[in-house]
Design a protein that fits this description.
alpha/beta, Rossmann fold, two-stranded parallel sheet, 9 strands, globular, binds NADP nicotinamide-adenine-dinucleotide phosphate
């Protein structure tokens, strides 16, 4: 049975991927910083699904620790068939803030780590002629809401480039672009969610089921739910200055 490595597999979207893949009988490698939560998640998955779970405590903001995971991804004896670059967080800090470290941390975790891990997995999977890479991006990447939007725009564009590079190799590459999903994400970033209308919230389990269907269909960009497909189609057809104005309005309501 295939093995999947999921970064940020202890909470929210990553945990939903872990449960969905465990249900299909896949073995898992989970990566996160909090050792206790990794151990709890591992116990839950092993008890419920009778799969094997390996855990790696690592901070994806630290380059050497990312390189360690890249080495695990290229292991010949214990191959990884599915990589899900999911770990990430919201950045609610102004671009003109004197302290730019939250933005830099976002770039380290959501860009540099995705780049290093996808490169390692892509090489190993191409050699075997099979594999799946899912990079969790965001619909925010279609907007212009600070560094988070810029980072996720990079993730989506990068994923499309990687899909082109691996085209025909047997390796599929997909950018998952969720809208608002009920997870710990907003609390952790201190984002006010009161103004977000109920119908715009997505359920993590449903999101993951939709994404896995898109992956099986060979889609390079997965935008789960009819609501968000429609909203993103509108965004893509709006004059760009209007998209900036909408983004400005949404950003000011969240600060
Ligand atoms: N929720 C949404 O509305 C939404 C919408 C669009 C896109 N997304 C994207 O979806 C992905 C998952 O977010 P989520 O909503 O599921 O958030 P979440 O519930 O806060 O989960 C984040 C996960 O990432 C891990 N993580 C965070 N920083 C890390 C680091 N430096 N090194 C290693 N692991 C780290 C966390 O574990 P530890 O804290 O233990 O490290 C946790 O397992 C992110 O890329 C996010 O940008 C979310």
């Amino acid at each position: 049975m295939a093995t999947a490595l999921i970064t940020g597999g202890t909470s929210g979207i990553g945990a939903a991927f872990a449960r969905a893949l465990a249900e299909r009988g896949h073995d898992l490698v989970l990566v996160a910083r909090n050792a206790d939560r990794l151990s709890e998640m591992s116990t839950e998955l092993k008890e419920h699904y009778a799969i094997s779970v390996e855990t790696i405590v690592a901070d994806l903001g630290v380059r050497d620790e990312v390189v360690g995971i890249a080495e695990r991804l290229t292991s010949v004896e214990r191959p990884i068939d599915i990589l899900i670059n999911n770990a990430g967080f919201g950045i609610r800090v102004k671009l003109t803030s004197a302290d730019t470290t939250p933005h830099e941390h976002g770039i380290d975790v959501m860009i540099r780590a995705v780049l290093i891990l996808s490169a390692a997995a892509g090489r190993a999977m191409r050699e075997r002629g099979a594999g799946t890479i899912i990079n969790v991006s965001s619909t925010a990447g279609f907007m212009t809401m600070g560094s988070y939007s810029a980072i996720k725009a990079w993730v989506t564009a990068y994923t499309e480039g990687l899909a082109n590079e691996l085209h025909g190799s047997g390796v599929t590459v997909t950018a998952l672009c969720p809208g608002w999903v009920r997870t710990e994400f907003h609390d952790r970033a201190g984002i006010k969610i009161g103004s977000i209308p109920d119908p715009l919230w997505l359920d993590a389990d449903q999101l993951v089921a939709d994404c896995l269907r898109d992956v099986a269909a060979g889609k390079v960009i997965s935008i789960p739910s009819k609501r968000y497909k429609m909203l993103i189609t509108i965004c893509e057809h709006l004059p760009h200055r209007m998209l900036r104005a909408v983004s400005r309005n949404l950003t000011s309501r969240r600060h």
